[in-house]
Specification:
Elements: E1 7-16, H1 24-34, E2 47-52, E3 69-70, E4 73-82, H2 87-103, H3 113-130, E5 134-143, E6 148-151, H4 156-169, E7 174-177, H5 180-187, H6 190-199, H7 207-212, H8 215-230, E8 235-237, E9 249-263, E10 269-275, H9 282-289, E11 293-303, E12 306-313, E13 319-323, H10 337-370, H11 375-388
Helix pairs in contact: 2-3, 8-10
Length: 389
Amino acid sequence: MGVYSNSVAMTQFRVSGDIPANEQFRWYSEKFSLMGFRSIENGSEQLSEGWTRTDQPDDPAFEVPGDFWRDDYILVSIRCDQRKIPSSLFRFHLSREETAFLAGRPDLHRTPKGKMQEMKEMVHVRLMAKTLPVPSTTDLVWNTGNGILTIFSCSGKTLERFETLFRKTFESFHLVPVHPFARAEMLLEGKSLELLHKANRANSDSVAALIAENRWIGEDFQLWLLYRSLNGEGDFRISLPGRFSGGEPFSAWIDERILLQGGSDDGGVQKVSVSGSQDSYSEAITSLRGGKTIKSSTICLEKGEDIWKLTLRGDTFDFASFKAPAIRIERDDSVDAGREREAAFYERMLVVEQGLQLFDSLFAAFLQERVNDSWSERASCIHKWLETS
């Protein structure tokens, strides 16, 4: 799944650094080309990864703006080709080598340790040369206008590889995940921002601390939304700039899936998954009453006839699934295929950014309550609701 798919996984980062005022295309082109993907198909290397073109992943040349530049957006992909030898295949060939070695040396009953290591390396190299690498690509979009980079994956290994490659490519740039506290900082200002900083429970500015010590943000946000969803308070208004006009109405609710976590009677950690369409979420409410918290949930956002469905991970605020309205591009034989792909990209980014604008407006509505004095009253209502439901 990638940028053109209607349903994707998604993680966002904030990028800060000095982009040259002039010759920007050449600068980007040189950066991506220097760390571009190199094929290992005709060799025996185990792994190769680097930048490539999203629309033509076999051609990592960044020679003209259309290869990766879309107005304020940079559209590229990370390609990773890896050779993997099945363990059963490796053991079979190693056993064959060992049998042949011992057959010519009847005085030996066991292969010496040093020789065994030599045979392992020889078998590994031989099988690598005969094994085709398996390719994989991950798309990303970097909005250089607002500094937000969106990578279409939530995989820990993929994100780690991305961060390593990005920092090697743009050595002086700063890359920070948009975790709950960071997203809240982006949305609040003035007195509310000051109150957010006072509520910060982390004892350092490290990303790990800001995530681990501020899990309350994601937990309280999802509990707040569940309460409003089940008590007829699911109507909101757009409060942040973006693709939609400010003040326009939309609806939001939690639906289909909730994952809760908390302590169990034996002292361990217990997870409870509630899935499927429900009216009252009695199982989830019972778990919440017992002290568990919401770790992830599926959030629906509706505006007009369009619905966005997001599976939010509360601790990191990445989206395990982000399903937007389908885009429709009318195909015309007289239009170049590349132009059609560009049109599809812009349409896709439109619905993605619309969904994020709705989500941010929803999150901002929660934050305005959570960091201000009105939260005590809301928290009391939620507590009474849990006790009486």
